[in-house]
Each structure stands twice: as C-alpha cells, then as structure tokens.
Amino acid sequence: MKLAGLGLQKLWVEVIYTLYRSFENSLKASGARAMEVFKQIPLYRFLMLCNECSLDKTILDCGAGGDTPPLSLFSSNGYETIGIDADIKQIERANKFAEQKGQSLNIQLGDMRSLELENDSVSYVYSYNSIFHMKKAEVEQSIQEMKRVLRPNGLLFVNFLTLKDFRVGDGVDLGNDQYEQIEDDLPVIHSYYDYNEADYMFEDMEFIYKEDRVLERIFEGERIRQGFIDYILMKR
Fold first, then answer.
1. What is the DSSP pairing of strand 205-219 with strand 222-235?
2. What CATH architecture applies to the domain 6-235?
3. How confident is the model at residue 39 (pLDDT cuts 50, 70, 90)?
4. Residues 93/64, Cβ–Cβ less than 8 Å
5. Is the pLDDT of residue 33 over 50?
6. How does strand 80-85 pair with strand 58-62?
C-alpha cells in the first residue's frame, strides 16, 4: 500500500468531507433524492482513505444491520462487502434496503468477539456506533478479532462513546463507566471512554487519524450532547 503524501491526502479528505456536509445539507433543504445520502458521515473519510490504498477492495462491517447499512456506500464504490450483526431484525432491515438497491451486501448473523474469518483475510474493517454496546473487556476482545482478520497494511476504523456524552451516569452502573441503559425499550450496555483510554488497544498499529467529536442536536424535543472518539489505524 502507498500512503505517500499523507499530509496532503488528509487535507484533501478534509476538503471532501466539508463539501459533502454542505451537499448533504443542500439535499435535505431541497428534498432532493437523486442519490442516497448516508447519515454515517465519518465513514466517508474512511472510504476516501481506503480508496487511496492498493489492497484488494474487501471490507468487513462489524455491526452492519439497520435501515441504511453503510456497506451499501462501499458496495457502490466497487468493494466486496461482508457484514455481521447480532440482531436478526437489523439484518433483515439491511438486506431489505440492499434488495431495493439491487445490491448483495452479504450481511449475516455473527459475533464480532469471535469472527468466523481467516487471519489476514480482509483489507478493510470497521465498526461504527456498535462496539460500545458491550462491556469493555468484550470491546477489547472484539478489537483483537478485527486486527486478526485484517490484512497487513489494511485499515481499521472504530469509534467509541466518550465521557462527554449526555447519557453518562444513566441506568444501572456496572462500574468503570459502563452502564445498562434503556434503548428502544430494551436494556442495552453502553461503555464510555476517556480520550486516551482506548489507545493501548492500538499500540501495535500505525496511527492514521483520531478525532474527538461532540455533537449537539434535538432529539425527541430535547437538546442533547453526544460524544464520540473516532480512530483510523493501519495494521503493520
């Protein structure tokens, strides 16, 4: 893989990222539906970095279900996709979306803590807004599995909830900033991280990008604040 001129590339990615945000807002304002706009905006950055690499275009999404699966974005850009999710209903929603777009995303029931894939078998791996729905010991186990299946020089994207999130402290306290909280009327574990807390899990990888994001938006009539940390790293 060649990542020559990474500084210039990052600047270019920032420009594309800003332009996309502007384009997304324009589409929302106009009601236009000429193309699919995915709400998982940080993955556009990851896509740009993946497109700069010379590895085979195979990508794994850990937590791939939902109404608008971002694997569709990668499929539209020529990637062979693999997805796993622990929730069969979310898989059905994702596959329905893919069917409507004429895509085969290959999303199946699976557990990111124990991936049924060979070592060094996938060029790119990501988990977006999924991995923090388990205890921190299981998060670390899942990260190790993602690194195991990732090819040398392959890229990994993963994000975590942070202590800046408005939900910290809600629900049943499981210790170590882990809480069982109600989501869609069901108890769901949420693990929250300090800014540098997760760094140790990536010490054997080459650092590419890290961002501490704080979002404020209206949710169910209330102004809320969400905190995330995004990591992009390369396997040595």
1. antiparallel
2. 3-Layer(aba) Sandwich (3.40)
3. confident
4. no
5. no
6. parallel
